[in-house]
Specification:
single chain; about 260 residues; alpha/beta; seven-stranded parallel sheet
Length: about 260
């Protein structure tokens, strides 16, 4: 795995789950990490844990529904460390709802967090990266971008939009040596996923049933996504841009009610 030594990486939504996994892995590769989360306490706690492990880090909090916050977190990274080398647009919401019955409020919030926020962060990061000679933007998407489950209608549309934005931005920013790629994530085991499944009535045994449908006998983990993100963030992928990596296991069976 390539090095991120002294690189400055901002990972949105990095207080838990996939985002935290990416932040921790990037730190292990030498990156200076800007931790972001919606609330100040958790963001500071994750940054403190990384600092205690010997890594250079800073924390900032804010709701990405706000355009001011989106631009502000990138500016904070630049002001704190003097530059930004890697932006990981990881933060997102997965509120359930179909295209037929979702409220306008759900739709607008989904698009604000999952599409507009990455767009604004990308704009702000690209402006800094142009001045420093280049950089990397990694967008965290979902395999639901291709069609998506019926109860993930607005979410699927938002991730499809993110995928188009990734490829368009790669074309627009290539001349500035800014690479833009996306990881479409499949079924990943996080604390939040466990809460979602149990809240939907599947009970504590849902995981044992779920893994029976996975070709490799397990769900993805945040570490799987982190390693893919590190590949895209380092010089191991120096000429890779406009690419979408699908992290998904083709199912070998179906789960009733899923």
């Amino acid at each position: 795995m390539g090095s991120l030594q002294r690189k400055v990486a901002l990972v949105t939504g990095s207080v838990s789950g996939i985002g935290r996994g990416i932040a921790e892995h990037f730190a292990s590769l030498g990156a200076r990490i800007v931790v972001h989360g919606p609330d100040e306490g958790p963001a500071r706690n994750v940054a403190a844990a990384l600092r205690d492990a010997g890594h250079e880090t800073a924390a900032i909090a804010g709701d990405l529904v706000s355009p001011k916050v989106c631009r502000g977190i990138v500016r904070f990274a630049v002001e704190t460390f003097g530059r930004i080398d890697v932006l990981v647009n990881n933060a997102g919401i997965t509120t359930r709802g179909s295209l037929v019955d979702s409220s306008l409020e759900l739709w607008d919030t989904m698009m604000a967090v999952n599409v507009r926020a990455p767009f604004l962060c990308l704009q702000e990061a690209a402006a800094s990266m142009k001045r420093t000679g280049g950089g990397v933007i990694v967008n965290i998407g979902s395999i639901n971008a291709y069609v998506g489950l019926p109860n993930l209608g607005p979410y699927s549309v938002s991730k499809g939009a993110l995928m188009t934005m990734t490829r368009n931005a790669a074309l627009a920013l290539g001349e500035h040596r800014i690479r833009v790629n996306q990881i479409n994530v499949g079924w990943t085991l996080t604390d939040n996923e466990d809460r979602v499944q149990q809240a939907e009535g599947r009970g504590p045994g849902w995981l044992a049933e779920a893994v029976k449908t996975r070709a490799f006998g397990r769900l993805l983990t945040p570490e799987d996504v982190a390693r893919a993100a590190a590949y895209l963030a380092t010089d191991d992928s120096a000429v890779v841009t406009g690419t979408v990596i699908d992290l998904e296991q083709f199912p070998i069976g179906a789960l009733p009610g899923w």
